[in-house]
Structures are given as structure tokens and as C-alpha cells.
Design brief:
The chain is mostly beta strands. Helices cover about 15% and strands about 55% of the residues. It has a ten-stranded antiparallel β-sheet.
Length: about 130
């Protein structure tokens, strides 16, 4: 089921991301860079079922490797240290990050050939859309 996420995805739009970054506690300077950055998302899966998600931009490249349903320590692009678990729920890849008593979810789904990432913190939702590169 993870296979449909595999590939290189190029960001084509980002809505409400500044508000999302504010909601998770990202400072002003980092938000300015974050708002201008249009990262590629590269998703691979190896034969052991380990998923690698790499976010690549001119500003910063981050990478996480995980097995579904197995918690791991993540250092996010904005330097939060989170306890993260990624699950597959109704065809969506759901990344749950917990830190300092807070929690945010990033839900990724593939629909009409696009990868849609919903970043959710409380009632704040950012939507980032990607298309697959050939």
C-alpha cells in the first residue's frame, strides 16, 4: 500500500503553511525561509519494508527512515526533537509527531496523480500539493 507514495514529488502549491508553522512554534526567521522553500519529496521503500522519506530543497534536506507502526526519534526541519510514528490509515500515510506535550499530524494521500499533504495542528490545517516527476 505504501508503493503508491514511492517516487520523487515536486511541490506545486502550499496553503496556510505559515499559520501551521506558527501553531507548532516555529520562529519568525525560520518561517520566512519555510514559506519560500518548495521542497521535493522523495519516497523509497527497501526490501525490508523500511520507508525513507526525504525532503530536499536548496535550504535544507531532511530524511527519516522508519517502519510503519514503529515509533522513532525524529529531528524535524525546524529542529524539534519528536517521538514520531507513521501509520497507514485508509490509504493515507499518517505521520504523528509528539514533543513537549504537543502533537501534530501530517496526513499524506495520493489522489488524481497528486500527493496531498495535510499538516494538522489543533484546528490549523495547511495543505501542500505535489506532482510526481517523470
Amino acid at each position: 500500500m505504501v508503493e503508491k507514495f514511492v517516487g520523487t514529488w515536486k511541490m506545486i502549491s502550499s496553503e496556510n503553511f505559515d499559520d501551521y508553522m506558527k501553531a507548532i512554534g516555529v520562529g519568525f526567521a525560520t518561517r520566512q525561509v519555510g514559506n519560500r522553500t518548495k521542497p521535493n519529496l522523495v519516497v523509497t521503500v527497501d526490501e525490508q519494508g523500511i520507508v525513507c522519506m526525504k525532503s530536499q530543497s536548496t535550504f535544507k534536506t531532511t530524511e527519516i527512515k522508519f517502519k510503519l507502526n514503529e515509533p522513532f526519534e525524529e529531528t524535524t526541519a525546524d529542529d524539534r526533537k519528536t517521538r514520531t510514528v507513521v501509520t497507514l490509515e485508509n490509504g493515507k500515510l499518517v505521520q504523528k509527531q509528539s514533543w513537549d506535550g504537543k502533537e501534530t499530524n501530517i496526513e499524506r494521500e495520493v489522489s488524481d496523480g497528486k500527493l496531498i499533504a495535510k499538516c494538522i495542528m489543533g484546528d490549523v490545517i495547511a495543505v501542500r500539493m505535489y506532482v510526481k516527476e517523470a
